[in-house]
Amino acid sequence: MRGWLEVRLEIEHPLPVEPVLKRLEDFGHRACLAGDCVRDWLLGRIPEVWEILSSALPGEIAGLFAGAGMEKISINAQDGAVGLRNRHYSCEIISLSGGSREGERDFMGCLEEELSRRDFTVNAIAYSLKDGFVDPFLGRADLENGIICCVGDPNRYFAGNGPAILRAVRTAALLGFRPDARLLQAAIEHRETLAAVPADYVGGELRQIFSGCGDGLAGLVRQTQEILLTILPELIPMVGFQQNNRYHVHDVWQHTLAALEAAGRDEIVRFAVLFHDIGKPYCYTEDGDGTGHFYGHGAVSANIADQVLGRLGFDGEIRAKIAELVKYHDVDFKESHRSMRRWLSRLGPEQMRRLLEVRRCDIWGQNPQLIRERTEEISRFTSILEEVEAEEAHFRVRDLAVSGADLIKIGYTPGRGLGEALRGLAAMVEDGRLHNERVSLLEEASRQLVVDTNICS
């Protein structure tokens, strides 16, 4: 324990569950908020569930709030926790009495023991209307300084506890905090315990880290890279792999971290950036003057990324989107509306914007002397995308001025051939080779029908 403080502070944020605390105290019971909810409340966030510790027994708690405006009252048969819910809040009241009256006589002692079992100091703060803040591990100071520290010895906490290591990184990510030096050192020293953590659990924690972290994701990955490389060993060949190319001044791994610094909050973009060059070590060749090349690394990287994400239990849809961005991240775009229409037809608007974002991040991690020129190129592609969207030039079959019934009337038969004909007309409109006018479309459809008939005869 680093100290014991009971401090009253002027609270800036309203406390929705104050009536619950007050009712418990009015009937002679001790009650206080504890854990994550106190942390979130101090940060100005609204907790999903308010945790309340009380000297009252479960039956007494349920009886106190029966008919007190609660929509639901439940008692967990396993641990005796009482759940209360109304339209304003949801809370869980846990009895510290141990099933007897002993806990009521020494509530503060029980509270101290309970807080000592919490994981991190920022989650080991309590608050009551009577005593104010109870902060034996100086969690509020760590909140103010943006640090994640263990309650007690971090080596004891992480020993044989792989999930706790991931939880520490995830907590830092979601709060935008940095891990304490002692915590980080202990987590790294015990990282071999991560091998026993189920892959889908690892995947779930990674998704929370990559989706929930703010602008500091790249910095957090740098700080915890030994942990990341332990759970994603497929990344290890990138470390120290020199690129020997004028476009790059970093090895593949450092380039990836630099690119990640430029990524926004989109989880799919972030994972695509992490994996976009994972296949480079397997595609490396040198020409006669010693310049390095990575021909086909986009497709190789996409295959590896898909396998890794599958191992981690990512669903098929997000896997496909990430792999698609990785596969096409280094394609040679043509600066034309026609080319952009084709890419929109293949990817769709949202995924196309993601692809341009991945390209921008990739460039950001390259040779600083070339960044300005190459990012201007991305800006031009983005302008073309916006122009094409503004012109509503992205046509689908449903946008055509003719329907399948119109083509049947001129000789087409229902089936695959009819669908292919309609998609072909839509592609010609997209490319600007044909106007979306009924007469023009029917003339082209008739011509194609004659051609196909002659080929088959």
Automatic annotation (TrEMBL):
<feature type="domain" description="Poly A polymerase head">
    <location>
        <begin position="33"/>
        <end position="148"/>
    </location>
</feature>
<keyword id="KW-0819">tRNA processing</keyword>
<dbReference type="InterPro" id="IPR050124">
    <property type="entry name" value="tRNA_CCA-adding_enzyme"/>
</dbReference>
<dbReference type="Pfam" id="PF01743">
    <property type="entry name" value="PolyA_pol"/>
</dbReference>
<keyword id="KW-0548">Nucleotidyltransferase</keyword>
<protein>
    <submittedName>
        <fullName>CCA tRNA nucleotidyltransferase</fullName>
    </submittedName>
</protein>
<keyword id="KW-0479">Metal-binding</keyword>
<dbReference type="GO" id="GO:0046872">
    <property type="term" value="F:metal ion binding"/>
</dbReference>
<dbReference type="InterPro" id="IPR002646">
    <property type="entry name" value="PolA_pol_head_dom"/>
</dbReference>
<keyword id="KW-0460">Magnesium</keyword>
<dbReference type="GO" id="GO:0016779">
    <property type="term" value="F:nucleotidyltransferase activity"/>
</dbReference>
<comment type="similarity">
    <text>Belongs to the tRNA nucleotidyltransferase/poly(A) polymerase family.</text>
</comment>
<dbReference type="InterPro" id="IPR006674">
    <property type="entry name" value="HD_domain"/>
</dbReference>
<dbReference type="GO" id="GO:0003723">
    <property type="term" value="F:RNA binding"/>
</dbReference>
<dbReference type="Pfam" id="PF01966">
    <property type="entry name" value="HD"/>
</dbReference>
<dbReference type="GO" id="GO:0000166">
    <property type="term" value="F:nucleotide binding"/>
</dbReference>
<feature type="domain" description="HD">
    <location>
        <begin position="248"/>
        <end position="343"/>
    </location>
</feature>
<keyword id="KW-0808">Transferase</keyword>
<keyword id="KW-0547">Nucleotide-binding</keyword>
<keyword id="KW-0694">RNA-binding</keyword>
<dbReference type="InterPro" id="IPR043519">
    <property type="entry name" value="NT_sf"/>
</dbReference>
<dbReference type="GO" id="GO:0008033">
    <property type="term" value="P:tRNA processing"/>
</dbReference>
